[in-house]
């Protein structure tokens, strides 16, 4: 027996949620891009869609605080294995081609 094709009414609608970054995330991104305070203010303000005069005090306060050491490197290190070389397999899916009727 052939399976029924899903009609547009039966398909679930996918909803993509877009959330703008919070100010602290925008500032962290700006600090990762440049060390210049004025540039950080400009980048963070553009990411948030806020005026620069509202972002500047928060950037200056954040810049005055000592940075925490990066922990990303600790998460990325894999324990050494004596099994041999590490292997990563990447498979490519071929795109579906539409056949004209």
Key structural traits:
101 residues, mainly alpha, 4 helices
> Could you say which structural class the secondary elements and strand pairing correspond to?
mainly alpha
Poorly predicted tracts of residues: none
Rg value: 24 Å
Total number of β-strand segments? 0
Explain what you see.
The structure is a single chain. The protein is mostly helical and 101 residues long. The chain has a domain of 43 residues.
Describe the secondary structure blueprint for this structure.
Blueprint: H1 23-33, H2 37-48, H3 52-64, H4 72-76
Helix pairs in contact: 1-2, 2-3
In short:
The protein is 41% helix and 0% strand. It has 101 residues and is mostly helical.
């Amino acid at each position: 027996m052939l399976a029924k094709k899903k009609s547009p009414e039966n398909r679930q609608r996918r909803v993509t949620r877009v959330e703008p970054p919070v100010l602290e995330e925008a500032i962290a991104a700006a600090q990762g891009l440049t060390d210049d305070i004025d540039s950080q203010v400009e980048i963070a303000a553009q990411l948030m869609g806020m005026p620069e005069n509202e972002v500047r005090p928060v950037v200056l306060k954040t810049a005055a605080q000592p940075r925490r050491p990066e922990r990303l490197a600790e998460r990325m290190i894999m324990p050494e294995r004596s099994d041999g070389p590490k292997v990563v397999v990447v498979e490519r899916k071929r795109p579906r081609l539409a056949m004209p009727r």
